[in-house]
């Protein structure tokens, strides 16, 4: 009694046994294929939320909206993000959700609302200061507003007659 083994059944595709493994709450038992699908869905949502939607190498590391050159890094979850080059402000001065650090392995990680050590600096995603991006909230730190204005001036100098090549989300 009680010694019988009942194979797990995948909650995604209802297959039994094989690669079905208990994935913990809230996922439950899933086969390898369904688990990979869940991970990709979560990673894709995170990438959209954080702006990690850049094209991977070997494509150019330019913004698809304003065409300015950026620093491109792979995120910790395999997506690519464009970070504003030559700018590393104090982390406390950047809105939560836009603070990125580049790890020793060269991957960029959005630290979210994590407490950073006193004096820490961070990188910011280009989409935050892309001149083709959405209107900045009224409470945006002045330094980021100025950086967006500088980017707008660079675009105007590079594309004097046409303005920015596209409008979008930066």
* Secondary-structure content class: alpha+beta
Widest beta sheet: strand line-up: 1-2
C-alpha geometry: elongated
Portion of residues in helices?
A: 10-25%
Largest sheet: 2 strands, antiparallel
Overall number of structural domains: 2
Helical run tally:
3
A few lines on this structure:
The chain is an alpha+beta fold. The chain has 3 helices and 6 strands; from the N terminus they run ββαββββαα. The chain has helices at 32-50, 126-129, 142-158; strands at residues 21-22, 29-30, 71-74, 80-83, 100-102, 108-110.
How do the helices and strands line up, and which of them pair or pack?
Layout: E1 21-22, E2 29-30, H1 32-50, E3 71-74, E4 80-83, E5 100-102, E6 108-110, H2 126-129, H3 142-158
Antiparallel strand pairs: 1-2, 3-4, 5-6
Q: How would you describe this structure to a colleague?
A:
- InterPro entries: DUF6083.
- It holds the Pfam family DUF6083.
- The protein has 170 residues and is an alpha+beta fold.
- It has two domains: 1-50, no CATH class; 71-158, no CATH class.
- It has three helices and six strands.
- The chain has helices at 32-50, 126-129, 142-158, and strands at residues 21-22, 29-30, 71-74, 80-83, 100-102, 108-110.
- The strands form three sheets. The chain has a two-stranded antiparallel sheet.
- Strand 5 and strand 6 form a beta hairpin.
- The longest helix has 19 residues, at 32-50.
- The N and C termini lie far apart (62 Å).
- The model has no long low-confidence stretch (mean pLDDT 88).
């Amino acid at each position: 009694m009680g010694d019988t083994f009942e194979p797990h059944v995948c909650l995604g595709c209802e297959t039994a046994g094989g690669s079905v493994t208990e994935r913990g709450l809230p996922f439950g038992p899933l086969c390898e294929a369904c688990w990979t699908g869940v991970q990709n869905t979560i990673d894709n949502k995170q990438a959209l939320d954080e702006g990690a939607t850049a094209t991977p190498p070997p494509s150019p590391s330019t913004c698809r909206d304003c065409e300015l050159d950026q620093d491109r890094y792979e995120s910790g979850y395999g997506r690519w993000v464009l970070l504003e080059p030559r700018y590393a402000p104090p982390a406390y001065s950047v809105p939560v959700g836009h603070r990125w650090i580049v790890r020793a392995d060269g991957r960029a990680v959005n630290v979210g609302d994590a407490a950073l050590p006193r004096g820490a600096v961070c990188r910011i995603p280009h989409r935050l200061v892309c001149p083709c991006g959405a209107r900045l909230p009224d409470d945006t730190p002045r330094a980021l507003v100025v950086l967006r204005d500088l980017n707008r001036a660079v675009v105007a100098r590079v594309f004097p007659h046409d303005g920015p090549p596209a409008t979008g989300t930066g």
